[in-house]
DNA sequence: CGTAAGAATGAATGATCATTCATTCTAGGT
DNA sequence: ACCTAGAATGAATGATCATTCATTCTTACG
């Protein structure tokens, strides 16, 4: 009786950048499925369909791979937001608000896969200064952009007694909290109602823009 | 040259319940300091000033210890909230709202120590069904209580077009998001302004109660 | 074709860690 | 003062995992 042969796959050689990307994607998949704590190098390389040694070749250490993965995830989310806020897609201020909501509760961002990874890293921020640095740098950039968008809206609408900085902080916190709720208690909250809650927040602040 | 002798401590025997509590506290301290991923049984028992074997004696496995620690932290936070919302300390509805804010941004809850632990577990929720079960059970209980408090306020104030369930979800999400911001970007947000942001949210919804 | 630069492999290594359990010690009961 | 139930200890064990590196394979280029 012969053991079933794993189909001998031909070894493929690819440029460094492509392999790095492939490993980062595999890392995201593993963290979403098994958690940051129990993800091993073996799992990651297997997920990528490669051998264990490959990770060392492209990232030196596990620590590096995890750091680069966080950088990638943080950049993807925050540049998506920032592009919308800067008005790449909509000049109109009201439309930018709607586009922002659509992005924050859209298919790309609210996948369980993505949110798991996001909060897995947040959970370690308290213990790893480097994670805190990466996340807070992006957070600050997005916060500035949001504050400036809100300031424009306040001016355009002539809204009184609203501080753009405070409002931006509140809105960001609300969005993070809603993502957390979607992850932790998905039965209590749908994407649609989460989106509505975000919308209502904006509407109370900017009644003529939403 | 003699190595400095660790002062031989006399072995102390204590009731099971007290040792369990001591180990849970040590676990919280370690998670806050080193993160959930790198906390070892050695660290925990050392933090408690006990030997490694003790953990097995009272909790069987590391898994159990971590689970019981989460149960303890979740219960502490949510029962604190629920007691206030039920009006143990204040019959008046407005006072209950203020008390809730004070609790959520008070000394006890917003310590880095506590918030680190809280989010460390949230980060693993995506991968460990048992954590999700514990957290979401308490979340649901607190959400129900908050919804009922909001419903009373809506009735008392005759507020129109406000859904208590939706508002409760939004408020909880906002508070979670603010705690996360306090943990991740402490330089951008003080406890005082976080509290003010929470207050403003309530004020927009219940202008006559805050 | 032939060859060499370097990409990819995976068995081996050593470090870390949870768990075990034979032994030691404590304190309440007699 | 003595005894014993069972609380506490910590060296030993075995499992898991990141990392290494001698070897194999691929492909671009002459």
- Poorly predicted ranges of chain A (pLDDT <50, ≥5 residues)? none
Write down the overall mean pLDDT of chain A.
Answer: 95
Helical content of chain A stands at: over 70%
- The Cα radius of gyration of chain A reads 21 Å
> Total helix count of chain A?
9
Q: Any idea of the CATH class of the largest domain in chain A?
A: Mainly Alpha
- Quote the CATH topology of the largest domain in chain A: Tetracycline Repressor, domain 2
Oligomer: homodimer
The helix/strand series of chain A, from N terminus to C terminus, equals HHHHHHHHH
Shape category of chain A: elongated
The portion of residues forming beta strands of chain A comes to: under 5%
How many structural domains can be distinguished in the coordinates of chain A? 2
Structural class of chain A: mainly alpha
| CATH architecture classification of the largest domain in chain A | Orthogonal Bundle
What composes the largest sheet of chain A?
none
Largest interface: A-B, 51 and 51 residues
Distance between the ends of chain A: 70 Å
Spell out the CATH superfamily of the largest domain in chain A.
Answer: Tetracycline Repressor, domain 2
Number of strands of chain A: 0
General description of the model:
2 copies of one chain form a homodimer. Helices cover 70% and strands 0% of the residues of chain A. Chain A has 9 helices and no strands. Chain A has helices spanning 16-34, 41-47, 53-59, 62-85, 93-104, 112-125, 129-157, 164-184, 191-205. In chain A, helix 4 packs antiparallel against helix 5 and helix 7 packs across helix 8 (164-184). The mean pLDDT of chain A is 95. The structure holds a DNA duplex (30 and 30 nucleotides).
């Amino acid at each position: 009786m012969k053991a079933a042969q794993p189909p001998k796959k031909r070894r493929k050689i690819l440029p460094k950048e492509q392999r790095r990307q492939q490993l980062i994607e595999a890392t995201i998949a593993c963290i979403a499925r098994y958690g940051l704590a129990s993800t091993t190098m073996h799992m990651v390389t297997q997920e990528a369909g490669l051998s264990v040694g490959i990770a060392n070749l492209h990232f030196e250490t596990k620590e590096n791979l995890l750091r680069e993965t966080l950088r990638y995830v943080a950049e993807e989310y925050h540049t998506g937001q920032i592009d919308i806020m800067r008005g790449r897609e909509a000049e109109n201020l009201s439309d930018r608000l709607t586009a922002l909501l659509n992005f924050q509760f859209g298919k790309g961002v609210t996948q369980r896969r993505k949110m798991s990874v996001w909060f897995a890293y947040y959970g370690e921020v308290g213990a790893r200064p480097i994670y805190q640095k990466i996340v807070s740098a992006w957070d600050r950039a997005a916060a500035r952009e949001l504050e400036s968008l809100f300031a424009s809206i306040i001016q355009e609408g002539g809204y009184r007694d609203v501080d753009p900085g405070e409002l931006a902080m509140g809105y960001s916190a609300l969005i993070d909290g809603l993502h957390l709720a979607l992850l932790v208690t998905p039965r209590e909250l749908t994407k649609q109602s989460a989106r509505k809650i975000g919308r209502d927040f904006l509407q109370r602040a900017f009644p003529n823009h939403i």
